[in-house]
Amino acid sequence: MSGMRASIDWIRHPAILRSAQILIGLVFIAASLAKIGNPRSFALNIHHYDLIPVALENLLAMTLPWIELVAGLALIAGVRARAAALLALLLMIVFTFAVLAAVGRGIDIECGCFGTSDGSRVGVEKLLQNLGLTGLAVVAGLRRR
Amino acid sequence: MTHQFPPPESSTNRENLASGISLIVLLGIGLGLAYNLFGQRGGTWGLDWIGREPTADLAKLPTPTGARTETGLLTNVDDPLAFGGGGLSEIPEIDRPIQIELSALKQYYDAGVVILVDARSPEEFAEGHIRGAVNLPFEAVATDPVRLEQFDPDGKAIVTYCGGGSCEMSIELAQLLLFQGHRKVLVFMGGFPEWVDANYPRQVGVEG
């Protein structure tokens, strides 16, 4: 038991937590800025996932990028960084399930993750990318030792 | 060698995290709404869509009785959807789906000028469908455009339908057909349940 604990103990090093927070913060800011400028196309991306009621799609398209932006800024600035990291983790889990749902139903759609400009589509590659970011968010949300 | 672990998370600590998360979410929502509804971008684009009926984009096909006034004159001759001449009106070739009601649909159906397309799954189609309808499952054609390309309405107007109620697959299928280049694409929102309620011809099985 203590050996396993020791192996995860190093990851709680403040420098590692801080790096993880800044890294995921940058990813979130990049993702938000790509979507903030064009809520219409982001709303269409959300529509294609076919997961939420049509009436809520625009609301989500208008607000979600801004939530990502605020969380990303908090992570980089180190203000309420743990709360922001846990929110990022929560969002990553939701995003991963959304991609999983799309892949599972075999629908080939644009991811919309970084706006429409990057043109990435949902698929196994996107799933792995999301899992990596989810892991990063877990680290960023750990308590310092 | 002993390891120092942080004490178990206190309830105050958890409350702090919860309030921090709420703060970020609310700030994000506030900024997002402010930017999109009141900011430079302005406009009420977002609100236009919220609570919008799924049929908002559909053109309306007037019912035969509503097309003429008591004097027998056409109500609106400039309206491309207005009825011309006697009998059934020519369905306009416009690039958006046209909504059709049961009574009008039955007349076109009886005249044999429309082909009905069932957007539901093959299983639902086999359990029962409008007699003569063909099955183009939306879920399948959305991922396999070849099925859509093979569909030939044989010069007839196309009427899509699905399970009625909140079912929007008929509209989505109509949009795909329009995108494919088809015209005279109509949507019967009442769907199979309304057809059954009226006790109109239907059949069971996979044959179209």
Structural description of this entry:
The complex is a heterodimer of chains A (145) and B (208). Chain A is an all-alpha fold and 145 residues long. Chain A is built from 6 helices and no strands. In chain A, α2 crosses α5 and α2 crosses α6. Chain A is globular, with a radius of gyration of 16 Å. With 208 residues, chain B is α/β, with parallel strands linked by helices. Chain B contains 8 helices and 8 strands, in the order ααββαβαββααβαβαβ. In chain B, the strands form 2 sheets. A 6-stranded parallel beta sheet of chain B has the order 1-2-7-6-3-5, with helices on both faces. The radius of gyration of chain B is 25 Å and the shape is elongated. At the A-B interface, α1, α3, α4 and α5 of A face α1, α2 and α5 of B.
Number of helices of chain B: 8
Largest sheet descriptor of chain A: none
* Cα radius of gyration of chain A in angstroms: 16 Å
**What's the total helix number of chain A?**
6
Find the count of extended strands of chain B (DSSP E, 2+ residues).
8
Head-to-tail CA distance between termini of chain A: 17 Å
Distance between the termini of chain B: 76 Å
Total beta-strand segments of chain A: 0
Broad structural category of chain B:
alpha/beta
Largest sheet of chain B: 6 strands, parallel
Question: What are the main properties of this structure?
Answer:
heterodimer; A: 145 residues; mainly alpha; B: 208 residues; alpha/beta; six-stranded parallel β-sheet; two-stranded antiparallel ribbon; 8 strands
Quick overview:
The complex is a heterodimer of chains A (145) and B (208). Chain A has 145 residues and is mainly α.
Topology:
The complex is a heterodimer of chains A (145) and B (208).
Chain A: H1 2-9, H2 14-36, H3 39-49, H4 54-77, H5 81-104, H6 124-140
Helix pairs in contact in A: 2-4, 2-5, 2-6, 3-4, 4-5, 5-6
Chain B: H1 11-38, H2 45-49, E1 59-60, E2 98-99, H3 102-111, E3 114-118, H4 122-127, E4 129-130, E5 134-135, H5 138-143, H6 145-150, E6 157-161, H7 169-179, E7 185-188, H8 191-197, E8 202-203
Parallel strand pairs in B: 1-2, 2-7, 3-5, 3-6, 6-7
Antiparallel strand pairs in B: 4-8
